[in-house]
Amino acid sequence: MSQQAPVEPLVSVVPAPEVGLNVFTNEIPPWTPGKGVRGIFGGFLIAQAVRAAQLSTAPTFAVHALQSVFLKPGKATSQIYYHVDRLADGRSFATRLVRTVQDGAVIFVATVGLQRQDPAGGTLPFRNLEHAVPPPHMDGKGPDDVAEASTDRLLFMVGFKTSTSEGFIEDPFEWRHLLDRPEGEQQQQQQQPAAPHSFRLRSMHHNVLFHDAGARADGWLISERRTSWAGEGRVLVEQRFWSLETGRLVLSCWQEGLVRLKDDSKL
């Protein structure tokens, strides 16, 4: 069997029939961004909630939209359960509500939209991204070749199809996931070295639109990010991703988060 892609264990969930019908749970402990960070990696919850929703539909359906809310911090020491409610099942679209439960409390809720893929194509024409300057040369390196110490500089890690593990190659709709940005003082100090105070961020809402079901997790993506509004202790971040290889827009997302000074009251 081929070696697993590093992201695959993070996405994997298994049925938990002892808890209930359409309930899934994580196979490995939740990933935490590092020392000094409260809670678990938010992207862990997003990725596995999307995977649980995917498992409740036919393999011909792929995720096209996600709306989610973080309610409480998760803990790395307790099992997590994903309760999937089948809100709608149509010929072309399906909708799932995923309630993420830990220690009896709902910590994260996601509404996941899935669309049946047309094997013959049938998509409207699209315009590829045209580079104003030549793209960087990666010298044959893929995203998984980047040292772990450098990943705190990445704002998002986006996963679609993986091609490195047997069983994931043939089915382009096997899983979809979004990994959220790591939180923590170290990252905030790196991003805002000139700021007079250290900040803490906590995600509140994520809205994601998936544009390309065939995009891969083992290829480079180009990211464009901007912040269009901040106030009342909240900030809105908008981001889009293109495939470096094809120039095609693969994902758009909007994130609202709480912003507090380091020495302020709890979020």
User: Distance between the terminal alpha carbons, to the nearest Å?
Assistant: 45 Å
Biggest β-sheet description: 10 strands, antiparallel
Please bin the fraction of helical residues: under 10%
Q: Counting H and I runs of at least 4 residues, what is the number of helices?
A: 3
N-to-C SSE string, H for helix and E for strand: HEEHEEEEEEHEEEE
Q: What is the global morphology?
A: globular
What does this structure look like?
- The protein has 267 residues and is mainly beta.
- The chain has a single domain, classed as Porin.
- It is 9% helix and 37% strand.
- It is built from 3 helices and 12 strands.
- The protein has helices at residues 8-11, 42-55, 185-191, and strands at residues 13-15, 23-26, 61-70, 81-89, 93-102, 105-116, 157-159, 177-179, 199-210, 221-231, 234-243, 249-261.
- The strands form 2 sheets. It has a 10-stranded antiparallel sheet with strand order 1-2-4-5-6-3-9-12-11-10, with helices on one face. The protein has a two-stranded antiparallel ribbon with strand order 7-8.
- A hairpin with a 2-residue loop joins strand 5 and strand 6.
- The longest helix has 14 residues, at 42-55.
- The chain is globular.
- The N and C termini lie far apart (45 Å).
- Mean pLDDT is 74; it is low at 148-196.
